[in-house]
């Protein structure tokens, strides 16, 4: 399983599309085997969900996310968890333990970077 976390360094970012990078966690049998950061290739409508799908991502975790991205992830069978804050690795560990729940936080104002989830 591959879990992507929209991140700023080691922390979950407030908005999926404007993140610095995606920390990709390769997980097997409930354990993190490998983590690598992939720079955000750019925020264009519909691009990032397809980009992450092509990387084989099964789960995406972010602070906030636009409704269009959520819809594309849902169509591709990728689990979306939003409304998350904190250290990316700790968040993934919480997910693997069944302790991480999505708040369903949807951003409607893409032009207002940094205001998602408020």
Automatic annotation (TrEMBL):
Pfam families: Nitro_FeMo-Co
Cited InterPro entries: Di-Nase_FeMo-co_biosynth, DiNase_FeMo-co_biosyn_sf, MTH1175_dom
Residue span, Dinitrogenase iron-molybdenum cofactor biosynthesis domain: 9-96
Coiled coil: none
SUPFAM superfamilies: Nitrogenase accessory factor-like
Protein name (record): Predicted Fe-Mo cluster-binding protein, NifX family
Protein's organism: Proteiniborus ethanoligenes
């Amino acid at each position: 399983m591959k879990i992507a976390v929209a991140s700023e360094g080691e922390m979950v970012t407030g908005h999926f599309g404007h993140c610095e990078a995606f920390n990709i966690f390769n997980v097997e049998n409930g354990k993190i085997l490998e983590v690598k950061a992939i720079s955000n290739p750019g925020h264009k409508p519909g691009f990032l969900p397809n980009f992450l799908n092509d990387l084989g991502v099964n789960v995406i975790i972010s602070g906030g996310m636009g409704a269009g991205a959520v819809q594309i992830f849902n169509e591709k069978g990728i689990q979306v968890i939003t409304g998350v804050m904190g250290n990316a690795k700790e968040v993934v560990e919480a997910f693997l333990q069944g302790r991480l729940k999505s708040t369903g936080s949807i951003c409607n104002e893409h032009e207002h970077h940094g205001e998602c989830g408020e």
